[in-house]
Amino acid sequence: MNLYTKNAVNLISIIVTISIFFILNQIDFQKVNLKVINFKKELEITNNFQTETSQNIVSNKEENITQNETYEYDWYIEIPTIELIAPIEETVEKEVMNRSVGHFSNTSKWDGNIGLGAHNRGYQVNYFANIKKLKRGDIINYIYNSKKRQYEVTNIVIIKDTDWSYLENTEENKITLITCVENEPKYRRCIQGTEKSN
Residue 192 pairs with which residues in a beta bridge? Predict the structure, then answer.
C-alpha cells in the first residue's frame, strides 16, 4: 500500500510539475506576445508621428516657399538680418495682414515716410515676429514697382497705440515698421529706417 501511495504521489508530483511548467510557459508566452503587440503599437505610433512630422515639415517648407517667393511681387519688404521677405498690400486691415504686410494708406509708397504694419504672433502669417531683434544699422530693403530703396535702422521705440506721429510724412526718405508689443495691448513696437546713402 505504501509503494502504491509513493508511486501515486510521485506521479501526481510529476503531473503537477509538468502542469506548472506548462502554465508558466504559457504565461511567459503571453507576456512575450503582449510585448510584441505593444512594440508593434509603439512602432506604429512612432511611424505615424514621423509621417505626420514629415508631412508638416513638407507643408511648412511649401508655406515658407510660398511666403518667401515674393520676387514675383512688385511690392515687398526684405530684411536680411531676420531672414524676412514679405509681400506688401494696401491698408492695415485684418484681412490684408492675415496674408501680407499692410501699408498705412495715409503714408507714402515711395518718397517720404513709408508706413508698414504686420502681425508678430498668433496669426496665419506673422511677418513682423522678429523685428524686435533688429538693431541700429541693420538694413531694410523696400521694393516698389521694380524700384528698390535701402534703409538703415536708426530708431527703435515703444509707442502708445494712439501715437501716430511716427507715421507723419517726412522730408527725408524713411520707412516705419509698426507691430504690437507682446502682452501690452496699449503699446506698439516702432522701428524706423532712414534711406541709406550710396
Answer: 155, 176
pLDDT greater at residue 192 or residue 46: 192
To which residue does cell 505610433 refer?
45
CA atoms within 13 A on the CB side of 5: 2
Angle 84-86-92 from CA coordinates, rounded to 5°? 125
pLDDT in tens, 101-116: 999 999 999 999 999 9
CA atoms within 13 A of residue 109's CA, in its CB half-sphere? 15
Give the span between the Cα atoms of 118 and 126, in whole angstroms: 7
| Statement: the pTM of the whole predicted model exceeds 0.70 | no
- Which position has the grid cell 501699408? 103
DSSP state of 197: P
| Average confidence (pLDDT) over 85-101 | 96
pLDDT over 50 at 46, yes or no: no
Strands of the chain (E only): list them.
75-79, 84-90, 101-103, 113-117, 139-144, 147-160, 174-181, 184-195
